Amino acid sequence: MIEIQVRRDAIGDGVAVEREVVLAEGETLLAIELFSMTANNVTYAVHGVDFQYWNFWPAPEGRGVVPVWGFARVVESRADGVEVGQRFYGYWPMASHAVVRPRTLLGKVSARGFDDVSEHRAKLAAVYNRYVTADDAMGSEAVQALFRPLFTTAFALEAMLADGPGTLVLASASSKTALGLAALAKARGARVIGLTSAANAGFCEATGYFDLVLPYEQSGTLDGEAGPVALVDMAGNGVVRAAVHRALGVRLEASHVVGDTHWDVLAADLLPGPQPQFFFAPTVIAERVQEWGPAGFEARLAAAWALFAGSLGWLAVREIAGAEAVLPAWGALVRGEIDPRQGLVARL
Ligand SMILES: NC(=O)c1ccc[n+]([C@@H]2O[C@H](COP(=O)([O-])OP(=O)(O)OC[C@H]3O[C@@H](n4cnc5c(N)ncnc54)[C@H](OP(=O)(O)O)[C@@H]3O)[C@@H](O)[C@H]2O)c1
Description:
Elements (H helix, E strand, L loop, with lengths): L1 E6 L2 E9 L9 E9 L2 H8 L16 E2 L2 E11 L9 E7 L3 E4 L1 E2 L9 E4 L13 E4 L7 H21 L5 E5 L4 H12 L3 E6 L1 H10 L4 E4 L13 E5 L4 H11 L3 E6 L19 E2 L2 H29 L6 E6 L1 H12 L7 E6 L1
Parallel strand pairs: 11-12, 11-14, 12-13, 14-15, 15-16, 17-18
Antiparallel strand pairs: 1-2, 1-4, 3-5, 3-7, 3-18, 5-6, 6-10, 8-9, 9-10
The site of NADP nicotinamide-adenine-dinucleotide phosphate has 28 residues, from helix 1, helix 2 and helix 3.
Organism: Polymorphobacter multimanifer
Protein name: NADPH:quinone reductase-like Zn-dependent oxidoreductase
Pfam families: DUF2855
């Protein structure tokens, strides 16, 4: 198999490594046919150690394998009830293949899929260990690989924010997670303000998901907002976050940090207003599943997705293949060279 390994201390530097796979009893080998590459994957690498994202796909000392979302097909199986040809959606390594240890019930994969019960994954968040039987209920596989993880996060954010302030400020408004949240929040009647790079402001406006779009340089003008306001910072830009806190002061009721893609911009010191809380989607999703039940969660998510999916006319899917294309694309992603219209999907 071919695997992309990145330097933990310089995540933009990756190499393609070829290695042999030997399946143990109970394991299954899958060929990864399509995975998405977005800023979210950069956050996985930035938090590889503290959030244990490096632990999903172990790599040699000093290196890490970045987790990605997508689809894979079983090519060999030594696990009872998992058959060659079956296809699953889930959390894979940035690689051509993956080895998992499926938990089957009565020697069968359940109608929903399976959990990877490999020992090294036992203590990691359950949502990442779940592999779902592939279907097209949420649209094409490219759209699913791009949006299933990000829209589910947007949905969880909206579930958390719905009872809060009626005005939302979303930083890194052009990210797919922010766009999903903006659409859902606007649909319930919230006032949604997007903060973004000057170059992406026109794109954000054209989506129609925002009541107001401001380039980062104008974050200070938020001092005219009446409040109460909640800030949702998608990419962890400490300078922008500080500007919003200063502009709104006590009118800011909540401050959430969703991602750390702006990993090169250090977080500011103590800020006026509520201290930022890191949002960890798996925890909030688990709480909602507890409250609504798994079927209730799925039904609400499906209804929200139906609302958003019809508005994706702006999305341009770009497919790339091979390490020679994936390595530079990863480097560009880490440097923040992302066209927000683009949905990048890849295979090795
Ligand atoms: N906490 C959680 O559980 C969780 C779950 C899912 C996603 N997330 C986070 O949500 C964020 C958005 O992810 P996504 O996959 O939706 O993003 P995406 O669609 O790939 O977003 C691209 C946008 O992010 C901004 N950006 C990303 N990296 C940058 C960099 N290095 N320098 C400058 N700008 C950068 C730019 O927006 P602007 O020009 O608008 O700034 C860019 O247009 C990520 O940080 C991700 O980790 C967190």
